[in-house]
């Protein structure tokens, strides 16, 4: 279980969150919705330890995590978090395969050979096997989206953070990605998706909406 309590966050003098609470359990798909610019990405970044909070508490598996400590959070992120970024953050001059296995080279949780096998099996599932040796700059937006998704899963994380993971996808790829989230749910992962896409609602267990610097659970 991931639990954030009374989180406050400001950028300069602008309030983003005022004492917000949030939780997500294993085997749960939780949505984070709200208008553009309201703080969805910021909240995912806080969970990932990529943004500091002004106050509040962060718990994982009933243990407090010091989420403003860079060393603690880089270890925590490596071990537990797969993050699909809104802008993908792929390396254009690397191939698809090189991008996918990049986290493995940093973390050393798997050997490179194992990582390549994992990458290839994901690529088959997401119809990217022909793209593996292409440089990312030469593939389409929807293909990039799928590469970013695969890269987030390569280390087999317990928590998956997905920032608008379906915006660039056509109907077939959208269905694939939805099935993947459902599969991750079966594997008892924690899945948190920031989205505007109403089509995702049907697979969500719970939804939160950010309004007026608060996060409210919406029906
Ligand atoms: N590093 C930063 N410094 C100052 N302000 C920031 C910073 N990053 C984001 N903001 C501001 O914080 C607010 C929340 O941004 P955020 O990116 O979290 O919104 P969002 O809900 O993800 O929006 P979108 O749906 O467009 O992706 C915005 O008003 C944004 O301009
Ligand atoms: Mg965003």
Notes on the structure:
It is a single chain. By secondary structure, this protein is of the alpha/beta class. The chain has six helices and ten strands, in the order E-E-E-H-E-E-H-E-H-H-H-E-H-E-E-E. The strands form two sheets. A six-stranded mixed sheet has the order 6-7-8-3-9-10, with helices on both faces. It has a four-stranded antiparallel sheet with strand order 2-1-4-5, with no helix packed on it. A hairpin with a 2-residue loop joins strand 4 (55-60) and strand 5 (63-64). Helix 3 (96-107) packs parallel to helix 5. Magnesium ion (MG) is lined by residues 40-41, 86, 163.
Structure, briefly:
This protein is 34% helix and 27% strand. The chain has 219 residues and is α/β, with parallel strands linked by helices.
The helix content is 25-40%
Spatial shape: globular
Fraction of residues in β-strands = 25-35%
Q: What count of helical segments does DSSP give?
A: 6
Rg from Cα: 17 Å
Number of domains: 1
* Mean pLDDT rating: 95
Q: Span between N and C termini?
A: 21 Å
- Bound ligands, each once: adenosine-5'-triphosphate, magnesium ion
The H-level CATH homologous superfamily, spelled out, is P-loop containing nucleotide triphosphate hydrolases
* Helix/strand order: EEEHEEHEHHHEHEEE
Helix-strand blueprint:
Layout: E1 2-11, E2 14-24, E3 28-33, H1 40-48, E4 55-60, E5 63-64, H2 70-80, E6 81-84, H3 96-107, H4 112-125, H5 141-153, E7 159-163, H6 171-186, E8 190-194, E9 206-211, E10 214-218
Parallel strand pairs: 3-8, 3-9, 6-7, 7-8
Antiparallel strand pairs: 1-2, 1-4, 4-5, 9-10
Helix pairs in contact: 3-4, 3-5
The structure holds adenosine-5'-triphosphate and magnesium ion.
């Amino acid at each position: 279980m991931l639990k954030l309590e009374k989180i406050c966050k400001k950028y300069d003098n602008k309030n983003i969150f005022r004492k917000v609470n949030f939780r997500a359990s294993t085997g749960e798909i939780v949505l984070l919705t709200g208008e553009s610019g309201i703080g969805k990405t910021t909240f995912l970044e806080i969970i990932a330890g990529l943004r500091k909070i002004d106050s509040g508490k962060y718990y994982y598996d009933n243990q407090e995590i010091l989420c403003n400590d860079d060393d603690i959070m880089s270890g925590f992120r490596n071990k537990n978090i797969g993050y699909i970024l809104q802008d993908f953050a792929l390396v254009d001059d690397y191939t698809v395969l090189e991008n996918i296995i990049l986290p493995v080279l940093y973390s050393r949780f798997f050997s490179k050979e194992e990582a390549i096998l994992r990458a290839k099996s994901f690529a088959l599932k997401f119809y990217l096997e022909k793209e593996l040796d292409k440089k990312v700059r030469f593939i389409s937006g929807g293909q990039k989206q799928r590469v970013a998704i695969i890269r987030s899963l390569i280390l087999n994380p317990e928590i998956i953070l997905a920032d608008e993971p379906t915006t660039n996808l056509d109907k077939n790829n959208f269905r694939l990605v939805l099935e993947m989230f459902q599969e991750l749910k079966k594997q008892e992962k924690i899945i948190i998706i920031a989205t505007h896409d109403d089509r995702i609602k049907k697979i969500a267990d719970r939804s939160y909406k950010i309004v007026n610097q608060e996060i409210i659970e919406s029906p």
